[in-house]
Structures are given as C-alpha cells and as structure tokens.
C-alpha cells in the first residue's frame, strides 16, 4: 500500500446520487448506483492513496481501506467535501448530484389535490466547480454524463468548471453508465484525451486511477 501510483496522496471521491427532499416521505433523485465511484475508491486505495468516499445513499459495501462519509442532499455533499478539501491532493467528482432541489421542503406530507400539480425548483450549488475554484485547490477531476455530443459537452464542462481532467460518460446506452456493471469513457484534459473502451467498472477504475496519477504528476504535482 505504500508503493502504488498514488502512494502518499490523499483522495476524496464523491459517489452515488443525492436525494432532495420534497416532504417527510418524498424526494427527487436519479439512477446512480454508486458503482463507478466505489470502484474508483477501491482502485485508489489499491494504488496507495489515503481515500475518502463522500457517498449519497447507495446499497454498496465500503471498499477495504476506504473512509466513508454518508450524505443525502447536494448541500450536505458540498459541506462534507469542503470540510475535507484542506487535506486533499486529488478530488474526483463521480456523484450524480441533483442540479435542482425543491424550493421548499414541506413539513407535512403533501396531500393529493387536483388533476395537475407543479413543483418549483431552485439551483443546487455546483460542488466540483466550488472545489475547483476554491483555496486550497486540489487536482480536480469531474465526470460528464451526457446523452448527445458527449465529448463536446464534456470539453465545455472541463473549461466552465475549471477542471484538470474530465471523464466523459455517454449515458444514452441502457447497458452502460448509470447502474450497470460496465462502462466506457473518454478522459479529456486541456491538451489531450484518451479513450477507454468498454470494460467492467472495476477495470475501468484502475485505468482511470493510473491516468489520473500520471496527469497529476505531469501537472507538476510530484
Ligand atoms: O453510480 P453509477 O450507477 O455507477 O453510474 C456512474 C455515473 C454514470 C453516475 C458516473 O459515471 C457519472 O457520469 N457521474 C457524473 C454524473 C453527473 O451528474 O454528471 P453531470 O454531467 O450532470 O455533472 C458534471 C460534473 O459536475 C460531475 O462531476 C458531477 O459530479 C458534478 N456536479 C454536478 C452538479 C452539481 N450540483 N455538483 C457537482 O459537483
């Protein structure tokens, strides 16, 4: 554990979905299972990193030698990440964070009414952008889940969120991306890219960790 590609480095990885409460019994969320983020945490620990997972609600066991902080909402996740960022060399945002939350959380269960109903939503904070634009600033890796123009949208997010690397994930295919055991991605950084073909999330995570270690080192961090 002390000789891997990430030996001596501290990693924080977000994983899973967030839940945005509507009332005491309901929430808005998404299909993220946490598998990709947990596979990254396992691979990072195997590569020698001191690894912390900031996890939304998932049904997965914590990988060996990984510390886990459980959160529910996007705002909880932001608070947990900001508390960890002072002791973090590399931050990886793999969570599927809700972009919006209900504008108000009702204290009592919402009663059924007429035929139509609507919800007012407000923007959640962008966690990875907050980390990438804060101080201290770790080497920051984001994911981009897209259903079309995957690489173009990912490049745009890399710049807009001020990231060091982004992992573009085409989530338009039912058997890849969200909740599946396999994935295929393109890792993109300012002056390069690398396509990682279809593989189990565990194998892909090992490749991504190796690539992140290399990019982190060549960005002058080692
Ligand atoms: O969990 P699994 O079932 O294994 O599925 C894996 C995955 C498909 C969820 C994962 O591989 C993935 O693509 N995660 C990112 C999902 C996502 O929300 O992408 P996005 O394009 O909406 O967000 C872009 C980046 O900003 C992501 O790094 C995201 O974590 C981050 N973000 C987004 C919104 C927000 N409010 N705060 C954020 O930090």
Automatic annotation (TrEMBL):
Catalytic activity: N-[(R)-4-phosphopantothenoyl]-L-cysteine + H(+) = (R)-4'-phosphopantetheine + CO2; (R)-4'-phosphopantothenate + L-cysteine + CTP = N-[(R)-4-phosphopantothenoyl]-L-cysteine + CMP + diphosphate + H(+)
Residue intervals of the DNA/pantothenate metabolism flavoprotein C-terminal domain: 6-214
One Gene Ontology MF term: FMN binding
GO cellular component: phosphopantothenoylcysteine decarboxylase complex
Record EC number: 4.1.1.36, 6.3.2.5
Described purpose of this protein according to its UniProt entry: Catalyzes two sequential steps in the biosynthesis of coenzyme A. In the first step cysteine is conjugated to 4'-phosphopantothenate to form 4-phosphopantothenoylcysteine. In the second step the latter compound is decarboxylated to form 4'-phosphopantotheine. Catalyzes two steps in the biosynthesis of coenzyme A. In the first step cysteine is conjugated to 4'-phosphopantothenate to form 4-phosphopantothenoylcysteine, in the latter compound is decarboxylated to form 4'-phosphopantotheine.
Cofactor(s) the protein needs: Mg(2+); FMN
Phosphopantothenate--cysteine ligase: annotated segments: 11-222
Family: In the N-terminal section; belongs to the HFCD (homo-oligomeric flavin containing Cys decarboxylase) superfamily.
Cofactor: record remark: Binds 1 FMN per subunit.
Keyword Lyase: yes
Keyword annotations: Decarboxylase, Flavoprotein, FMN, Ligase, Lyase, Magnesium, Metal-binding, Multifunctional enzyme
Residues reported to bind CTP: 99, 109, 125-128, 143, 157, 161
UniProt-recorded name of the protein: Coenzyme A biosynthesis bifunctional protein CoaBC
Full protein: residues contained: 181 to 402 of 407
The UniProt record lists the keyword Flavoprotein: yes
Any one biological process term the GO annotation gives: coenzyme A biosynthetic process
